[in-house]
């Protein structure tokens, strides 16, 4: 998946690529928010993400992610906070900072969630780089993950795996979340989506190339639906994603839906051509894990080998 945004960096221990470096001093955006101004914040973020060159689907990923973080600041923090946005090389970085612990939460414990629920070190220092905060995971007590709960399958969990970098830290002055989104190398139209269908006797090969976004998701859903409704008693599919150059949340949802539809028909669907980072994200976002092979030759062997041999 050369040139893709969300899986372009080396994964950290949590499966989220490491961030690209410290943020510059002057943000592109610094906007306070509370429960009554979240709609205005969404509109501002959408404008900045579009101007940065993100395709529509990825714009919505950024807006939804930051909205989720801001909502957590409103619900689990002091009810208000500040969003700051920077352009850092090929990345758009957004920091969401709440205004301090909520009145109902007298705890002032400091620390950064290390990805296991254990708190390591202290919270962000005054004036510290957003990029210096360690990666966060599921919180279980006393720290960032406890104030802003990161639970499997819930909003913050999903947001974490839609970004190219995610950190969550807490301290006496409140909680800070920072997310990175890799800006596409060229206009979204540079990689139009194409889907090739190839009959392979014992299975159907679907070859996906280009941007896996909303339009692509509709095509994938339609083609898989036609195969499931066809004359194959137990449909078997291989989806080759080696030609996919960019994706968004709608594209990921289409893959998950395709898997569920095929398995509901007592069939099997396997993927091939994924990077390690993209595979980690799919495993985190899908209710059940995908079967993945390095290349289509291994997938071919999977369907041509009799069960139990």
From TrEMBL:
PROSITE patterns: STAS (PS50801). The keyword Ion transport does not apply. Residues 204-283 form the STAS domain. Keywords: Kinase, Serine/threonine-protein kinase, Transferase. Gene3D superfamilies: Histidine kinase-like ATPase, C-terminal domain, STAS domain. It holds the Pfam family STAS. It comes from the Bacteria. Signal peptide: none annotated. InterPro entries: Anti-sigma-factor_SerPK (IPR050267), HATPase_C_sf (IPR036890), HATPase_dom (IPR003594), STAS_dom (IPR002645), STAS_dom_sf (IPR036513). The keyword Cell cycle does not apply. Residues 1-31, 97-147 are annotated as: Disordered. Residues 112-125 have a biased composition (Gly residues). GO terms for molecular function: protein serine/threonine kinase activity. This is Anti-anti-sigma factor.
